[in-house]
Amino acid sequence: MEKLAAEALAILNDSRGWGQAGFRFVADPDGPYRVVLAEGDDVDRLCLPLETFGTVSCQNGPVVALNADRWRTAVDHWVLGVETYRGYLVNHEVGHLIGQRHPRPRCPVAGRPAGVMEQQTAGLEGCVGNPWPRAWELDYAARRPVVYAPLPAWAPDPVPTNLES
Fold first, then answer.
1. Of 119, 157, 118, 125, nearest in space to 139 by CA
2. Tens digits of residue pLDDT in 53-76
3. pTM beyond cutoff 0.85
4. Residues near 76 by Cβ (< 8 Å), separated by ≥ 6?
5. Alpha carbon of 93 to those of 110, 121, 147, 164: distances in Å?
6. Which of 9, 67, 120, 145 is close enough to 57 for a disulfide, judged by CB 3.0 to 4.6 Å?
């Protein structure tokens, strides 16, 4: 568990991450939020009413549940290596914890890096895998007030028309 905490904190506090939007992440055993690594059946229970089918991860209220199979092996179409996939997984699910949603449309510009909040686990739809928030995602995340630990029934965020950054 300490190894997960260290790796997750390193990802979350990396200079390419959500810190650019003003967030700072610390380990606090008394804190209100939890990032857990669990097997599929446990993730299924932690994520209810979302259906994760024993294969995907989620954020549900104050809990981020990372699927252990995805942590160990990534997904078949991910060609950037499991360590990079872990970066995507942590940034994506904790992105939900800080109020970020899946953008629509997905992969608006083929061949460009996917937004970290895109559901890259389900496929890249022509985009390139990417573990870090894009500039437009950081702009959304920097808006205040932030809704922490939202319930999972939110609509998607629109993708801005200027995707140069």
1. 157
2. 999 999 999 999 999 999 999 999
3. yes
4. none
5. 23, 11, 14, 24
6. 67
Q: Which domains does the chain have, with CATH numbers?
A: 2-150 (3.40.390.10)
Characterize the bridge pairing of strands 103-104 and 157-158: parallel
* Cα dist from 146 to 127, 141, 160, whole Å: 28, 8, 19
Structural contact between residues 39 and 30, judged by C-beta atoms closer than 8 angstroms: no
Residues 6+ apart with CB under 8 A from 46: 36, 38, 58, 60, 63, 65
**Whole-number Å distance between alpha carbons of 20 and 127:** 23
- Cβ atoms of 57 and 93 within 8 Å: the answer is yes
From CA 133, how far away is CA 116, in angstroms rounded? Answer: 5
Average pLDDT over the chain reads 91
Give the sign of the dihedral formed by CA 51, CA 52, CA 58, CA 61: positive
